[in-house]
Amino acid sequence: MDVELPDDHALVERLRAGDEAAFMALVEALQPSMLRLARMYVSSMAVAEEVVQDAWLGVLRGIDGFQGRSSLRTWIFRILVNIAKTRGVREGRSVPFAALVGDDPEAPSWDPSAFLGPEAELEGHWSTLPADWRGIPDDRLLAGETFSVIRDVLDELPPMQAEVLRLRDALGWSSDEVRNALDLTETNQRVLLHRARAKVRAALAAYFESGDTA
Hints:
Elements: H1 8-16, H2 20-39, H3 45-62, H4 72-90, H5 97-101, H6 138-141, H7 144-156, H8 159-170, H9 175-182, H10 186-210
Helix pairs in contact: 2-3, 2-4, 3-4, 4-9, 7-10, 8-10, 9-10
């Protein structure tokens, strides 16, 4: 869960004034996501932790020059990504973009068999509509097993797909914030989010249709 922070202007002023509580609140809010992101580019979690520490030092050194052209957290994540990429290159681990995002961005997100083929009058439409979950009891939708299914899918997703989904759907970041923070094009950000959501939905559909409760 994201940690509630003051608005950017108030937080920046507190950071510039050396407010330790404000800085620690910022660390608490962003550290988990920063570690996951750094780990994509470097060889180990220990190195990722060093990258995050360097990023926080960069934040403290650069906060006086922050001009508010982007959100504060976007600015912090760009510092992090730049340091992580540089560190990855230095240790000989330059990760191909394709390894982070997963399969071919032009490939379909859903199984083609879910859509009507060229012989059908409504080519490209759903052959059967996705399941309607409105009749599922709330206690099952919100059960620990349901969240466990989601966590398992996130663990299996390519790292950039998983991080885009976390930032957009769990933490409520805007598409512009995610795109700027992770150095993605708008098209890449949209495709990654769509693919991740499709895979989560497919896993949940299989889970709900199975009737399993364990």
